[in-house]
Structure formats: structure tokens, C-alpha cells
Write a structure and sequence with these properties.
Length: about 230
């Protein structure tokens, strides 16, 4: 049926996306959306050689950064192989959570992730799940892995499978303000999930590097969050 439909649609392209269910959810839905975005991008006029890459608005995204606290000290103490093994644990736990909550991995930065969500609720649920997963892991681990998380929402610029702009920078700066096992979010994120069962503690306006005006930050009480 799909082949017959594609055959009669001008400039169409049939793509089979691997998945386990007929109505995609979570990570499978992200793969479908990525395939559509790639098709739409390929249909645009080719760029003239020598010109700058075309940048497009990324739409409303919720940006989530993770960072392993004290990763440099851990590598110094454990050595390169031991430190890398610890980072692999961080990567495995984080990628499992991204798959479960439909987050997109934008890039890794050695000891952290930059990720994107189309829903602020999904981003916060993922952040809470991450902190709970690492706490469970640390209960039996010889060397604990503690992460800090920062979340912001906005309309970044999408270019070459990456995201840029103020929304991304603020998310990174907020993550840098967090301590081990903390989830910090901006007021924008708090407003987007208003009415949901999240508990926040107001940290007040916080000056962020590179910004003239302070940004109001909230800590998420993830230990008390509903399952």
C-alpha cells in the first residue's frame, strides 16, 4: 500500500523506518521525525558553493545538559582506562533514558551530553529518571558517578545536526551552576510544565557568564517527584 501511494505522489520518496510498533512512540517517533526532516531538507534548493551553511529555526526545544561532577579528578585517580570505563557507564545510563523519554542526543562532550526534547515534560521526566538511575547505580558501585543537570527551553538555531543560540548557551550555563545530583531549570521550563506534579525550589536570579541580566533558576525536587 505504501509503495502504491508513493508511486502516484509527485516527488515522493518511500523510506522504511525500522521499529517494533505500528504507531511510533519515544525514540522510534524521533527516528520518523528525523527521516521527515531529512527529506524536507533534501528537497530545498542546493546551496551555492562558497556560501555559509543554511541555518533554520529549530522550533521550540527543551535543551538538557548533563555533566559528570569531578570527571577530571576521577580520571587522575583511576587512570585513563578506569576513567573511560566510568564515562561509558554515564553514556549507557544516559542513552537508555533518552530512548525511553524520546530525547535526541545532539552531541557528547567527553564527560557530558547535550540533548534536545520536543516536550519540556519529557525533558524533566528524563532528568529525574537519570538522577534516580545514577543513585541506584551508586548504591553498589565501587566508584560512584554523580551528575548535574541543567535544563532550558527556547528556539535554537538548527545547523548540521547541531543546535546553537542563546537557548543552548543558557542551558549549559545553568548546568554549570548545579551540584552533584541536582537538576536546575530556568523559569521558562517551570512555566512550560505548570500544572504538572513537579516540585521546585526558587534559587532566585542568578548571574550567568556572558549575560547582562541574571536568570531565575529553580531546583527540581526529584526525590519527591511522582512516578
Amino acid at each position: 500500500g505504501a509503495r502504491q501511494l508513493a508511486a502516484v505522489m509527485p516527488e515522493s520518496q518511500l523510506v522504511i523506518v525500522e521499529g517494533r510498533i505500528s504507531i511510533p512512540r519515544g525514540a522510534e517517533a524521533v527516528r520518523v521525525l528525523d527521516t521527515i526532516e531529512q527529506f524536507i531538507g533534501a528537497a530545498k534548493p542546493a546551496q551555492t558553493l562558497g556560501r555559509s551553511p543554511v541555518t533554520t529555526p529549530g522550533g521550540l526545544r527543551t535543551i538538557l545538559f548533563t555533566d559528570v561532577e569531578g570527571s577530571t579528578d576521577l580520571t587522575d585517580r583511576l587512570g585513563d582506562e578506569g576513567g573511560r570505563a566510568l564515562m561509558r557507564t554515564h553514556e549507557e545510563i544516559t542513552r537508555r533514558a533518552l530512548t525511553e523519554f524520546g530525547g535526541a542526543e545532539i552531541k557528547t562532550m567527553g564527560d557530558g551530553f547535550m540533548t534536545s526534547f520536543h516536550s519540556a515534560t519529557s525533558a524533566l521526566d528524563c532528568a529525574i529518571a537519570l538522577q534516580r538511575s545514577f543513585r541506584t547505580h551508586n548504591e553498589t558501585a565501587d566508584v560512584p558517578v554523580n551528575i548535574r543537570i541543567g535544563v532550558n527551553a527556547g528556539e535554537p538555531i538548527a545547523e548540521d545536526d547541531d543546535l546553537y543560540g542563546t537557548a543552548v548557551i543558557v542551558a549549559a550555563r545553568v548546568a554549570a551552576q548545579a551540584q552533584a545530583e541536582e537538576i536546575l531549570v530556568t523559569d521558562v521550563v517551570r512555566l512550560l510544565v505548570a500544572g504538572k506534579a513537579y516540585l521546585f525550589h526558587d534559587r532566585g536570579p542568578v548571574p550567568l557568564k556572558g549575560f547582562d541580566d541574571p536568570v531565575r533558576i529553580y531546583a527540581v525536587h526529584w526525590e519527591d517527584a511522582d512516578d
